[in-house]
Amino acid sequence: MTTGISESVLDRLDPEDSIRVLIVDDHAVVRQGLRTFLELQDDAPHGGVSPGDVPALPIEVVGEAANGIEAVDLACRLQPDVVLLDLVMPEMDGIEATSRIIEDSPHSRVIILTSFGDEDKVFPAIRAGAQGYLLKDIAPNDLVQAVRAVCLGQVQLHPDIARKLMSAVAAQEEPPGSRVPTGLRELTERELEVLRLIAEGLNNREIADKLVISDKTVKTHVSSILSKLHLGDRTQAAIYALRHGLAPDDA
Question: What is the value of pTM for the model shown?
Answer without folding.
Answer: 0.65
